Write a sequence for this structure.
């Protein structure tokens, strides 16, 4: 699982900081999460192949999370894309995009599939044989969802010598990898765990931005491997977090601790702060394994 | 008159090239012309004071000419702007912007005034005591206007010694600068030109992008000082210019020559070409005074 941060600052794009956008490479899927202004340029800068993006997840309709989407869709068209593009985001997104395509008289040749979200409960919005994606309802000024990406359980590791010794026909190896018990050539039931061991651990990633500190997300993200949680402010500016419905670094760390996350990545920083280290220091008082998102940074898990 | 090119490439923003946007500093107005994605970052990079922009002119609703507008409007809001912002552009622009503000529940505190254009004839869209702006109807795939910015005639230069010798009361000096004849202390009519000389020449700037080669704009831009005319293609790719309704460098130069422009600036280059010099070479075969727009370049006239 590889996470590339394209932008991790709040509010507006600046000369050296970009608004929210990140790419999650998981089980051969390349998921784009949020798409602030300039995201297509950051994709180029980070040498990410446009054609591999087939699913885009938009958390909410504040500009710093989606103003780059219409341009990216338009660039896909100019690049003569043919593959379907699936977009998951709040109701209204389709109207915004199609209105602009209509007025520009520039319809895409590829199929644009909008999956508009309105539910206030966590729901499954994508699933195939390798990955499942659920929404994480967040508490922000407008309707907002985080997203939980989970790898499905990996196949169990088969001990071929043990399987041969137990006289299991090769036709059953697939079933064994999937965790089933099988019957051997002598008609005897062989317990799966006697010929297999656990496969590679399946990983999960939770993206939570933008949100007020809200413990109601904890059951949804419980035991997540990697949690990206917004930390727009430091505790010294906590009075700004509440009315704007953002979080502090300490609050992000508290959510990570209570959810038993393994790693916390902080981001969505207000540009009022000179150094990001203060965010880490503050979060570390509550939670050990804290990483700082930075534009262009790549995390591998 | 100072023109800053923020972006001058067609189609999509790239790592080192920006879509169309430019700033015209004329008689203390700072006019923003077109606003492709990333324009706000280019404004910062070129150290242009956001608050000085009070008028934005959008040629047409293709993304490379206006996808940066909604973000700029939003950033003005975050910067707690209070001054009115006037936006001139095709009908539909207001709907695009207000739909996004509505869905983000983020209305501006400052007054946003849309001047939507629908006329296919050249019309005056802005005028004060120093500058007048007319549309230049262009021939593109969607409804498109160029813009002609003209300084009003500058005041005549008063020869104070001559005026004193002619016994003209100082109360009449303003009238003299405005070009009127006046009566002196002896009741005698004094011809204006005997005590004044021509003031500084008034300048004009025509922005023409995007457009097919179309001679019908010539009467509108006749004798213009500086003409920016799109040259998406070179003659060797002329067959691409017609269906996409763009121009070649040679065609831009032909318009400049027939309109008796003093200077031609080329821009809106397709990114298929390695060198911009070819555009200049091609245009120079028809017209002498050719300049190449480049991102970040400043022209002073």
């Amino acid at each position: 699982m590889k996470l590339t941060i394209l932008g991790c600052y709040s509010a507006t794009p600046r000369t050296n900081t970009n608004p929210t956008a990140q790419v999650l490479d998981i089980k051969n899927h390349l998921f784009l999460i949020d798409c602030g202004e300039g995201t297509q340029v950051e994709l180029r800068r980070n040498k990410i192949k446009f054609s591999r993006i087939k699913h885009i997840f938009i958390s909410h309709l504040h500009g710093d999370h989606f103003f780059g989407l219409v341009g990216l869709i338009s660039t896909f068209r100019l690049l003569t894309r043919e593959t379907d593009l699936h977009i998951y985001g709040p109701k209204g997104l389709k109207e915004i995009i199609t209105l602009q395509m209509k007025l520009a008289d520039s319809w895409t040749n590829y199929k644009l599939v909008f999956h508009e979200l309105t539910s206030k409960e966590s729901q499954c919005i994508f699933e195939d044989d390798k990955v499942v994606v659920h929404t994480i309802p967040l508490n922000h000024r407008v309707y907002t969802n985080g997203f939980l990406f989970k790898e499905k359980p990996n196949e169990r590791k088969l001990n071929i010598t043990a399987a041969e010794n137990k006289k299991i026909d090769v036709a059953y190896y697939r079933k064994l990898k999937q965790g089933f018990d099988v019957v051997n050539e002598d008609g005897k039931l062989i317990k799966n765990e006697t010929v297999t061991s656990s496969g590679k651990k399946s990983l999960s990633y939770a993206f939570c931005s933008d949100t007020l500190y809200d413990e109601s997300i904890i059951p949804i993200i419980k035991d997540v491997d990697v949690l990206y949680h917004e930390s727009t402010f430091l505790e010294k500016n906590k009075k700004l977090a509440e009315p704007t419905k953002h979080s502090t670094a300490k609050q992000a760390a508290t959510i990570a601790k209570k959810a038993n996350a393994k790693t916390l990545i902080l981001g969505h920083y207000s540009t009022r702060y000179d150094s990001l280290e203060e965010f880490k220091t503050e979060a570390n008082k509550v939670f050990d394994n804290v990483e700082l998102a930075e534009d262009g940074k790549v995390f591998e898990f």
Notes: Chain B is about 25% helix and 30% strand.
